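#onboarding

Welcome to the new folks! Below is a worked example of what a typical request in this channel looks like: someone posts a single protein sequence, and someone else replies with the predicted structure as tokens. Don't worry about understanding the tokens yet, we'll cover that in week two.

Example request:
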Amino acid sequence: MITSSIASNNLKAPVHTSAQQSASQAAVQQSADKVVKGVCCEAHVLDWDKMDIFQQAHEHRKYDLVVGAEVVHEVSHAAGVLRAIRLLMAAGGKTVIVNGAAKHRFGIVEFQEQLKAAQDLVSTCIDVPAPLTHSLESLAEGMLVLQVYTISWASL
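Example response:
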């Protein structure tokens, strides 16, 4: 089952005619029909300082794949991101994080140090190859280097 919801903070939603709404509903249904049965995708906004609240709401839920983008940009985020990975990643699961490199983001050095020290996790980190970022102006000019972290449980 696919559900969709839109939340706004005092934003005016565009007015649609019945024909537009029907076309939108048809497009959503067509997308839903393409979903592989048994595959579920969820998205959550996490506050690293309030992970206990998230944990209570999602207790006992583990995910085969956890994806994050630009999640570490303060020193305090390093420990919170690792806590979230341990909370959310299923046994045999993987976490993939794309983030700016240490010269662009505070907290990355601490994140890397904590990953290296973590005996329960195995991780790799690579720079995103230039051909994959050539269309993004700031990346093409070398103003920002992106890195990809792949994290999984260590076999103990």
